[in-house]
Amino acid sequence: MTTYDIAIIGGGNAALCAAMTAAEAGAKVLILETAPKSYRGGNSRHTRNFRCMHMRPLDPLIEEYDEEEYFADLLKVTDGKTDENLARLAIRHSEECLPWMKERGVRFQPSLTGTLSLARTNAFFMGGGKSLVNAYYRTADRLGVDVFYEAHVTHLELNGNKIERLDYTRDGVDYQISPKAVIVASGGFQADTEWLARAWGEPAKNFLIRGTPYNRGVVLRDLLDQGVERIGDPTQCHAVAIDGRAPKFDGGIVTRLDCVPFSIVVNKNAQRFYDEGEDVWPKRYAIWGRLVAAQPDQVGYAIIDSRSLNLFMPSVFPPLKADTLEELAGMMDLPVEKLTQTVADYNAACGDTQNFHPTELDGVCTTGISPPKTNWARPIIEPPFYGYSLRTGVTFTYLGLKVDDHAQCSTTHGKIQNLWAAGETMAGSILGQGYLAGFGMTIGTVFGRIAGREAAAYAN
Predict the structure, then answer these.
(1) Where on the phi/psi map is residue 259: left (φ > 0), alpha (ψ -120 to 50), or beta?
(2) 360, 375, 393: which is the final residue of a domain?
(3) Is residue 157 domain-resident?
(4) Which of 166, 232, 280, 381 could cross-link 399 (Cys pair, CB 3.0–4.6 Å)?
(5) Where is the FAD-dependent oxidoreductase 2 FAD-binding domain (predicted)?
(6) Does the residue 68 lie in any domain?
């Protein structure tokens, strides 16, 4: 049996970045991916872009996006709940990552239309996340990295300050290996809906899981139970508003709804409950999962008119369409009189719309209504009218392994000599709450590379 210097648990972006980096440093690397080959890549399969600092135009990115602006954007969505040192480390290193990614087969394209102000901040993958994952697997294969699919890691044996053994099952057979170093890059626990419900309460059973059904937190729980230091709140997660018709698992990016800034959003009682125009969508879209989660039955409904239909990226499901608001209310099982009154009150609160500009904060707002709408507030008056149902879609959870700036894990007794973590499983160190579009890929890429480098140096 092959002896491995490094075992990497997980098969997504962070795991692959770690694997390539370690292999390039001369280490013999094994990736243990729980999913079958056709589902390899974790949540990275569903990503579209990478948020990247740059001081001048860089490949598809225009103008500049410096460290201070990037960090300010992060502070806004996390409300300051971040480890500044680790956050700035991720931001600062993102600039060097983009050419590194290209060298390993990733191709980029200009930002997609309807993505609201991302051309300067986010580099889009040509072919999406699945193309990125496939490119990395091809590169890893050329570097001699071995990959075992449907390999279910069940336990890491921590003895003192060292991982002594790794247990996994594959094809019904139990295995034990003792690599010199281990990197955990196996995501959060969001696919374990019972764990979600223990953290959130019963409403969590109504949540949809946008990403892979294989991220159940088995290794995370195993390590936390052995005293590995944790970070993050189990009720905090990257949760967005997605189409209510999405599947329970793995609906991915195409189920996300980007219509909120140009709509009013109501609950099942046809009442608005938050400012739909609070900020440009890449900075604010992740708050809507939690907002919808707080509503009765964990559902919401976005209402737009024909003028707004082409202002945002469409979901995989077409909206409901009606010639009147009354008809639309009936189709959505909303109280007819209440919805028409809510829309009438909103329309009456809208003012001058001459400065309406769909891709930037335009100050076109309501007056005399609560909650206000502070941007893109146009009356909903032009038939046909359209509606989407909204549900909470969880991408990944923020409870994870605490790491230092070398991506190394610890217990209360000190550093674990041969254990590192990267990607969603440690992102709670940086994302205390909220989310910034494309930042998960930044964290995974930067800390995957760091973990791969550090583990290889230790193994060698």
Answers:
(1) alpha
(2) 393
(3) yes
(4) 232
(5) 5-432
(6) yes
Residue 146 CB contacts under 8 Å (≥ 6 apart), including other chains? 2, 4, 29, 30, 31
- As for how many domains the chain has, the answer is 2
Do 174 and 252 have their domain in common? no
Per DSSP bridges, beta strands 6-9 and 173-177 are unpaired
Extract the tokens encoding 368. 């005399």
Are the CB atoms for 205 and 192 separated by under 8 Å? no
User: pLDDT per residue over 50-86, tens digit each?
Assistant: 999 999 999 999 999 999 999 999 999 899 999 999 9
305: which 2 tokens?
Answer: 């008119």
CATH number for the domain spanning 60: value is 3.50.50.60
Q: Which of 376, 393, 410 is the last residue of a domain?
A: 393
**The tokens of 358 are what?**
């769909």
Task: Give the CA radius of gyration of the chain.
Answer: 23
Q: Kindly indicate the confidence band of residue 282, based on its pLDDT and cuts at 50, 70 and 90.
A: low
Whole-angstrom distance, CA of residue 241 vs CA of residue 263: 13
188 shares a domain with 105: yes
Orientation of helix 84-103 relative to helix 67-78, angle to 10°: 120
* Residue 335 pLDDT exceeds 70: yes
- Kindly report, residue by residue over 158-212, the tens digit of the pLDDT: 999 999 999 999 999 999 999 999 999 999 999 999 999 999 999 899 999 999 9
How, if at all, do strands 122-125 and 49-51 pair?
A: antiparallel
Confidence of residue 100 (pLDDT cuts 50, 70, 90): very high
Q: Could you tell me if 120 and 53 lie in one domain?
A: yes
Q: Quick check: 45 and 252 in contact, CB under 8 A? A: yes
The CA-atom distances, in angstroms, between 382 and each of 367, 421, 460 are 21, 52, 67
Domain that holds residue 324: 239-393
In the numeric block, which tokens belong to residue 211? Answer: 């990403």
Distance, CA of 242 to CA of 210 (rounded, Å): 8
Same domain, residue pair 296 and 423: no
